[in-house]
Amino acid sequence: MDTLAIVILNYNGQPFLAKFLPAVLANADGHPVYVADSASVDSSVSFLKATFPTVRVIELPRNDGYAGGYNLALDYIRTHYGGATYYALPNSDIEVTPGWLSPVLALLNANPQIAACQPKIRSYSQRDLFEHAGAAGGFVDWLGYVFCRGRVFATFETDNGQYDDNRRVFWATGACLFVRAEVFHQTGGFDASFFAHMEEIDWCWRIQRLGYEVWACGQSTVYHVGGGTLHKSNPHKTYLNYRNSLFMLYKNWPADNWLWPKILLRLVLDGLSSLLFLKVGQWRDVWAILRAHFAFYGQLPRLYRQRRLLQTQQTTKVHLYPRSIVWQYFAEGKKTFKEICNV
Fold first, then answer.
1. In contact, 35 and 8? CB cutoff 8 Å
2. How does residue 265 score in pLDDT terms, banded at 50, 70 and 90?
3. Would the keyword Transport be found if you checked this record's keyword annotation (predicted)?
4. How many structural domains does the chain have?
5. Is residue 192, in this structure, part of any structural domain at all?
6. Angle 14-26/44-51 helices, nearest 10 degrees?
7. Which of 193, 224, 255 is the last residue of a domain?
């Protein structure tokens, strides 16, 4: 069994592979590199085989998104290559840096309770800024809204070393996620119904309820283009983010009487947020939010079964951020993690 397997999921991303895969190979520290291709219709597979013969190419039968794609790929590695102790899952549009692996592996090796970890994520185009997808580690507020050290909504901090520590966080980003393989397989991996976006947050929530920990490693840095497969302006991204956030909150919220009041408040706030899209004429995003809500209603029977199962299996109490990040950001004008959390 390998100590680490580096696994990149690809869908029609041949230009990103050409640009960023050489750095991954140069900084793999002898660990095997896999590319799992989700039935791309571009030249990705033939390009990989001709240009990078040392890369182990896994040809998946279809595009099941980030969640289903990685579930299939990591299960294939386990059954056909003997698996690994850890998996590193960088997006195809991630630029890695020399030494990006060793600090994260040292942290994982030092604490067997850590099942998920991420490096610092900085912007590829504005290299001194933290990037949207994870920044320096993420948190979830009491209504299920997510924010990060270094990025709160549309405010991006400059990296001045303020998050160079190793710290326990609530979620680690799927843009460059390290996972303990045994825990990943034990929990069934990501929820494939998410397809893409927020499945890693849902998984981090679930593993913490099993007693595992999620950390951010401040001694490792990578750069992320962002939107490589689905651009942030695409209404389908809006749909997935709003829908999956409701999926996650309903599945994982503890067993008490406050679930439905929170869900109803979230639905109202989502509706208010659609006014921001309406203000700038983005009608398709408004429709995407409506579709997301109806998709949530339609999936309630399945989500209820998942919730009941999780309630019986997972017992460790998980602590969400106890205030509303929406109120603090928009009403109180607190724009950075330090202002919000006072740490």
1. yes
2. very high
3. no
4. 2
5. yes
6. 30
7. 224
